[in-house]
């Protein structure tokens, strides 16, 4: 008995780098106009600024890791305790 392939919309999927996905004109129009409307909204502008801020922070962290100023850890650091 052949196992039937099922699609799980909540699942995570991967594909080869050379995989091709295609859209018809209506689908492409819907996607591009939706993205443009989202990015041109006030919240979209905030998200774009947050992405740029993340790039700056990530680059700064990378530079400091390479300098040995910051090091990777595997367990979260403990919060400071008050010394009375």
Structural class: mainly alpha
Shape field: extended
Low-confidence stretches: none
Q: Specify the biggest β-sheet.
A: none
Distance between the termini: 71 Å
**Average pLDDT for all residues:** 90
Radius of gyration: 22 Å
Order of helices and strands: HH
Helical element count? Answer: 2
How many individual β-strands?
A: 0
Proportion of residues in β-strands = under 5%
DSSP helix fraction: 40-55%
Provide a descriptive summary of the structure in words.
This protein is mostly helical and 84 residues long. The protein has a domain at 25-67. 50% of the residues lie in helices and 0% in strands. The chain has two helices and no strands. Helix 1 crosses helix 2. The longest helix has 26 residues, at 42-67. The radius of gyration is 22 Å and the shape is extended. The mean pLDDT is 90.
Q: Which helices and strands occur, and which strands form pairs?
A:
Elements: H1 25-40, H2 42-67
Task: Provide a short characterization of the protein structure.
By secondary structure, the protein is mainly alpha-helical. Helices cover 50% and strands 0% of the residues.
Key words describing this protein structure:
extended, 0% strand, 84 residues, 2 helices
């Amino acid at each position: 008995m052949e196992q039937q392939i099922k699609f799980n919309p909540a699942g995570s999927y991967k594909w080869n780098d050379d995989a091709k996905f295609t859209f018809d004109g209506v689908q492409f129009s819907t996607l591009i106009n939706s993205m443009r409307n989202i990015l041109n909204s006030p919240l979209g502008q905030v998200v774009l600024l947050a992405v740029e801020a993340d790039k700056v922070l990530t680059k700064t962290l990378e530079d400091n890791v390479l300098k040995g100023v910051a090091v990777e850890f595997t367990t979260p650091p403990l919060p400071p305790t008050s010394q009375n």
